[in-house]
Amino acid sequence: MARMLADAKQTLWLLDEMPEDPKNPTAAEINAGQDISCVIGKAGFNLGSGTSNKEADTPLCTEGETQVPTSKTYEVAMNIYRYFDADTGQIDPAEDFFFQAVKEFGSEVVVALRDGGKAHTEDADAGDEVSLYRLISGGMGRSTDGGGYSKRVADFSVVEGHEDVVVVAG
Q: Which one, of 166, 105, 131, lies nearest residue 47 by Cα?
């Protein structure tokens, strides 16, 4: 059994829509998306399940108190790199496509995330495990870090999640 270093082994796609069957997405549905792995900063990136909401629910016959999970939560944090035309210094909308898709408050997008042993340049194949999320933009903050590339801090809420589903042929 081989372990693999995780560095540069995450792929994030921007999809046009949630796959028809989110529990069984097809390779074609995932690969139809745009690879946004290189427009998201690695520092601070987080997308996935958060700490579940809990409720105290202890039988009378039990000592102490039992907390049981009642609902899932999700966490999302990402910095989006901005892209400019080298000649004019103005925004290059073609290269800045992900920021353009989410910059408006309330914008809704669907993303697919693959962790694992494949480089972001490799297509999704049947048998790959991905997580699908519908995100709603809460606005774009300013980066507090003035070093490195120009970027914006994205505020998103996850409104639908299908984690660790297996891609099927198609």
A: 131
Residue type at position 49: S
pTM: 0.88
Cα-based distances in Å from 57 to 25, 61, 134, 148: 36, 12, 31, 49
Residue 48 pLDDT > 80: yes
Round to whole Å and give the CA distance between 125 and 36.
18
SS3 at position 69? strand
Amino acid at 167: V
Half-sphere exposure of 140 (CA within 13 A, CB side): 15
Phi, psi dihedrals of residue 102, rounded to the nearest 5° = -120, 0
- Please give the radius of gyration of the chain, using alpha carbons only, rounded to the nearest integer: 19
Length of the chain in terms of residues written: 170
- pLDDT, residue 145, reads 66
- Beta-bridged to residue 128, according to DSSP, are none
Cα(18)–Cα(168) distance, rounded to whole angstroms? 15
The H or E element that residue 16 is part of is none
3 to 28, 71, 85: CA distances (angstroms): 28, 32, 41
